[in-house]
């Protein structure tokens, strides 16, 4: 019961924050709303017993990625109101179409599954903690892990190329 | 789940304290008009000499994005350390290969001058 109250509370906070993030005129204010959205999502991860994911959500998304967003805002010199110029009817219509498609996908993905809140049932103790994640990640899913390192390598190369650093 | 009760309690107490302070000062505090002096950013110290939101040098962004890449690397090593005893040599080799590939990234970054400021 308490879990359900917490879920609905933080789900509402997440949705309000996300809506505020896309409707604010000042991009920096949007970024701060996004922090609130990410932290609410972390609470929902905790309710789903994904503790490691919740910690990563706060450390990486609310901490590092949002900092990067603010950097991009300053890098592109986005001033208050500049986003409004990109909000025309055609883009709104496209957004609506994409939203309908994504909701349809969600419906297909979750239809008939047993993903019900508070119905975790049968999880062994320690589920979702860093230890359990590591035991899977470094045995069964070690190949995807190496692919992630390649992805991060591409990010390093891409950042340096985009910044136009000359090779010395 | 119950370990998180402390965090929840902190959150609730913070919300009550901050919200209560704001609400009380709005309700019973004296209403004051905004003056030119009050809109200045600092009551002491230097007056800022330019508008915030000025365009940034790209160096900061490169440092930030490289920080995030290695931040994510450390995040992936954290589950490895937690399960070090159980994943054994196989996990050790996997983690070493993971670090090796990102070390190539670090070497590339170094040679290309990503760590230099100018």
UniProtKB/TrEMBL annotation, chain A:
Membrane topology type: Multi-pass membrane protein
CC per GO annotation: plasma membrane
The keyword Transmembrane is assigned to this record: yes
Key words of the record: Cell membrane, Membrane, NAD, Quinone, Transmembrane, Transmembrane helix
GO molecular function list: NADH dehydrogenase (ubiquinone) activity; quinone binding
Catalytic activity, EC: 7.1.1.-
Major localization listed first in the record, in broad terms: membrane
Transmembrane parts of this sequence: 6-23, 30-48, 54-77, 89-107, 141-163
InterPro entries with a match to the protein in the record: NADH_UbQ/plastoQ_OxRdtase_su6, Nuo/plastoQ_OxRdtase_6_NuoJ
Reactions catalysed according to its record: a quinone + NADH + 5 H(+)(in) = a quinol + NAD(+) + 4 H(+)(out)
Subcellular location: Cell membrane
Function: NDH-1 shuttles electrons from NADH, via FMN and iron-sulfur (Fe-S) centers, to quinones in the respiratory chain. Couples the redox reaction to proton translocation (for every two electrons transferred, four hydrogen ions are translocated across the cytoplasmic membrane), and thus conserves the redox energy in a proton gradient.
Similarity comment: family membership: Belongs to the complex I subunit 6 family.
Protein name: NADH-quinone oxidoreductase subunit J
TrEMBL record, chain B:
Keyword presence, Transport: yes
Chief location bin: membrane
Gene3D superfamilies cross-referenced by the UniProt entry: NADH:ubiquinone/plastoquinone oxidoreductase, chain 3
E.C. code: 7.1.1.-
Enzyme superclass (EC): translocase
Reactions performed catalytically: a quinone + NADH + 5 H(+)(in) = a quinol + NAD(+) + 4 H(+)(out)
Transmembrane spans: 6-28, 58-78, 90-111
GO molecular function: NADH dehydrogenase (ubiquinone) activity; quinone binding
GO cellular component: NADH dehydrogenase complex; plasma membrane
Membrane topology category: Multi-pass membrane protein
Keywords noted in UniProt: Membrane, NAD, Quinone, Transmembrane, Transmembrane helix, Transport
UniProt KW Transport keyword: yes
Localization: Cell membrane; Membrane
Function: NDH-1 shuttles electrons from NADH, via FMN and iron-sulfur (Fe-S) centers, to quinones in the respiratory chain.
Family: Belongs to the complex I subunit 3 family.
Protein name: NADH-quinone oxidoreductase subunit
Source species: Candidatus Glassbacteria bacterium GWA2_58_10
Top-level taxonomy: Bacteria, Candidatus Glassiibacteriota
